[in-house]
Design goal:
Elements: E1 12-37, H1 41-53, H2 58-65, H3 69-81, E2 85-87, E3 93-95, H4 97-104, E4 113-126, E5 145-146, H5 151-155, H6 157-167, H7 169-173, E6 182-208, E7 211-216, H8 218-225, H9 228-240, H10 248-261, H11 265-268, H12 279-288, E8 298-302, H13 315-324, E9 333-336, H14 347-359, E10 365-370, H15 374-381, E11 386-389, E12 398-403, E13 407-414, E14 425-431, H16 434-448, E15 454-457, H17 468-471
Parallel strand pairs: 1-5, 9-10, 10-11
Antiparallel strand pairs: 1-4, 1-6, 2-3, 6-7, 8-14, 9-12, 11-15, 12-13, 13-14
Helix pairs in contact: 13-14
Length: about 475
């Protein structure tokens, strides 16, 4: 995705999206609360009149309001029965101590009264921090990364539900600032259904003056940091999942190989000492100022192929648009995934695959996944048409989306020291250049056609014979037609 921003401080690129699965449970809570309310208009006016005058006779009330004798008697009897007024020694009405207290508790000289109401509500809490959560939040799917709930939150769920309900009652009740209900008591708590809510995170590559770093989106950052326990849980998953790539220095060797394989002169010109990519210079010249380019049939991209930005056109939309040019061909798509446990762990990944299939009717996507990362291969196998392979190309940092012989997307997942060092910067291109398409096709075919590295179809419908040429016949020289 290219952004033409004139001010460097404003530039950001969406590079990754991860959806977390937040375990939640709903509870049926029977409770009582006190609600502040004002008196009926006439009653309140009489009370305020007595409050100002200290005491007043029945005749004065009747004359002031123009009531009949009967109406006045009904009003006075009502005030007495509600413990608001009493007769003094002069047979005049004055306020009771109870009524006077309602003025002293008020900030606007209006008497405030409370009544107790009973209610039964279904309330949801997340099981990580046990704070309330909006039950209408979208549910997560199989691609999400599940956050670990605390054991005691499961074994003592009703206890924690009651405590959290008490602590967060105002938030749950959503009362107005000047009319907040007060929790009176909790009668009972019943456990109901458990579910997993989706917690999506967007990661951006930002340029600030002469610095490049990876950040959450502002909305995401505020959402997470509003809950320390959830934030801590997410950071832990990011810190333990940088397991596919062990050494930044080893990366340079594979990055150089990537550049040679695809004859990428633009990236080659951006290499610094020890063949390390000058990320800032690359972003400025290629994606901001458009000084360096790849030619008419090739477009540089930054960020995962499937990334979908809500604010700007993203790789998701660009790739779907390019594929639509070739929808009449109905060729199969080979998608070689990198070995990276955070890759594709978002509902957007599934949405992207659906969009590809809807755009190119009759085309099937065959996802090639490294089986060294068992968790990654299992997640994809449960959701897509997945095939396994070993010895990932370029240390597992290479990704190829191949629609041979018409189109290819190639990405190198480049790790960069940042706020989130476990999140790589996907750098690559989308191209209709036949030479680049052929290079990608040949690379995959020659790496896997011997069947030593190819593990066949994964999952319940696993093939008995793991023959790459059969499963991916559309990549064979004899099968590719212009």
């Amino acid at each position: 995705m290219t952004q033409n921003n004139t001010s460097i401080q404003e530039v950001k690129f969406l590079i990754n999206q991860i959806t977390y699965s937040l375990p939640c449970q709903s509870f049926e809570i029977d409770y009582s609360f006190t609600k502040q309310e004002r008196l009926p208009v006439v009653t309140e006016f009489v009370i305020r009149l007595i409050y100002v005058c200290n005491a007043i006779s029945i005749a004065q009330i009747q004359e002031y309001f123009g009531f009949s004798l009967k109406e006045t008697e009904v009003l006075i009897q009502s005030l007495i029965s509600e413990r608001l007024v009493l007769f003094n020694d002069d047979h005049e009405l004055e306020l009771t101590e109870y009524a006077k207290s309602k003025f002293s508790e008020s900030s606007d000289d209006y008497p405030r009264f409370f009544k107790i109401e009973n209610k039964i509500d279904n309330v949801s809490f997340n099981l990580v921090s046990f704070t309330p959560i909006d039950p209408t939040k979208p549910r997560s799917n199989a691609l999400s990364i599940t956050l670990k709930e605390k054991d005691e939150h499961i074994s003592k769920s009703k206890f924690f539900a009651e405590k959290s309900f008490e602590s967060h009652f105002y938030k749950i009740a959503k009362g107005k600032q000047n009319d907040l209900p007060e929790l009176y008591k909790i009668t009972s708590v019943k456990t109901k259904s458990r579910y997993n809510a989706a917690l999506p995170l967007d990661f951006y590559l930002k340029i600030d003056e002469d610095c490049v770093d990876i950040y959450n989106s502002q909305d995401t950052e505020e959402l997470i940091k509003s809950d320390d326990e959830i934030y801590k849980s997410i950071i832990e998953t990011l810190s333990i999942r940088n397991d596919s790539f062990h050494n930044f220095n080893d990366q340079n060797k594979y990055f150089m190989e990537y550049i040679k394989l695809f004859k990428d002169r633009v990236l080659n010109n951006k290499l610094g000492s020890r063949n390390t990519l000058d990320v800032l210079s690359y972003l400025q010249d290629v994606h901001i100022n458009n000084i360096s380019n790849y030619g008419a049939n090739t477009q540089p991209i930054i960020g995962n192929i499937y990334c979908k930005d809500r604010e700007t056109e993203s790789n998701y939309h660009t790739l779907i648009s390019k594929l639509s040019k070739f929808k009449k061909h109905s060729m199969s798509i080979c998608w070689l995934a990198p070995e990276y446990s955070l890759y594709g762990r978002t509902s957007v990944f599934g949405d992207f695959i659906k969009s590809v299939k809807n755009t190119n009717k009759g085309s099937e996507i065959k996802l090639l996944v490294p089986i060294e990362d068992q968790q990654q291969s299992t997640v994809f196998t449960n959701s897509f048409d997945t095939y396994g392979y070993t010895q990932p190309l370029l240390n597992g940092q290479l990704e190829i989306f191949l629609y041979a012989p018409y189109f290819v997307g190639v990405v190198f997942h480049y790790f960069y020291p940042s706020n989130f060092s476990s999140i790589p910067i996907p750098i690559g291109f989308l191209s209709e250049d036949h030479a680049l398409v052929e290079s990608a096709r040949k690379l995959i075919f020659e790496h896997l056609h011997s069947n030593k590295r190819y593990q066949g179809k994964l999952g319940k419908n696993k093939n008995h014979a793991n023959i790459f040429k059969n499963d991916f016949s559309f990549l064979d020289f004899s099968s590719v037609q212009e």
